[in-house]
Amino acid sequence: MEKTDAEWREELTPEEFRVLRQAGTERPYTGEYWDTHTAGVYQCRACGAELFTSNEKFDSHCGWPSFWAPLAEGTVRYIHDRTLGMERVEVRCANCDSHLGHVFEGEGYGTPTDQRYCINSVSLRLVESPAGQ
After folding, report:
1. Which pTM does this prediction carry?
2. CA–CA distance from 82 to each of 38, 64, 77, 88 (Å)?
3. Which of 20, 37, 40, 75 has the smallest count of CB within 10 Å of its CB?
4. Could you list the residue range(s) of the whole structural domain that residue 123 is in?
5. 87 confidence band (pLDDT: 50, 70, 90)
6. Residue 96 falls in the annotated catalytic set
7. What is the CATH number of the domain that holds 94?
8. How far apart are CA 18 and CA 10, in angstroms?
């Protein structure tokens, strides 16, 4: 999926554009989903691709939504990020190449993968599961 910056600006709010298209970061503890426990699927806010589910979401107490794995192999792509003087792995939507956040390993969380996908709320849209599922 390829769009010009002008096309993205028409579709996204200024904050969504800053994070999704310019690899910005929202402030911790301010995003819509950092403390959400609602069952559902998290989609890319830019293109609607399904990226994560509430089944893999966990409380990391870092101020951003955290997941221990993406929904499926190939839904996200990874870029080595050396900005800000740090070695990190950036996570992007595999469908539209929007910035989602970063993934960290070896932090000692009791999750099945020992990974923390630290994702900006503004990069996501939660589609709630129907009641009883």
Report:
1. 0.91
2. 34, 21, 16, 6
3. 37
4. 5-128
5. confident
6. no
7. 2.170.150.20
8. 13
> Is residue 133 a part of any domain in this protein?
no
Active-site choice (44, 93, 96, 118): 118
Nearest CA-CA partner of 115 in 47, 61, 67: 67
Query: Residue 120: pLDDT band by 50, 70, 90 thresholds?
Result: very high
How many C-beta atoms surround the C-beta of residue 93 within 10 A? 23
Give DSSP secondary structure letters for 37-104.
---EEEEETTT--EEEEGGGEE--SSSS-EESS-SSTTSEEEEEE-GGG--EEEEEETTT--EEEEEE
Question: What is the SS3 assignment for 3?
Answer: coil
Q: How many domains does the chain have?
A: 1
State whether residue 105 is helix, strand or coil: strand
5, with CB counted inside 10 A (0-12, 13-18, 19+), is exposed
